[in-house]
Predict the structure of DUF3040 domain-containing protein.
Amino acid sequence: MFHRKPLEERIAERVAKRPPLKEGKHFEHRPALIVFCVIIALVALKIVGAFVLMKWGVQ
């Protein structure tokens, strides 16, 4: 329609330009690490909160 490459080809070209991931590194960029840590913290807080409510006998 606008003489552009399909989305899959554009993504493949962009991925091919990136350098390989360093050995032992699990997250490619900092925001991914931050989001992962926030999700883990929320899950832990929810579990701890549930145990506290059970301890106090709140229903």
In short: The mean pLDDT is 87.
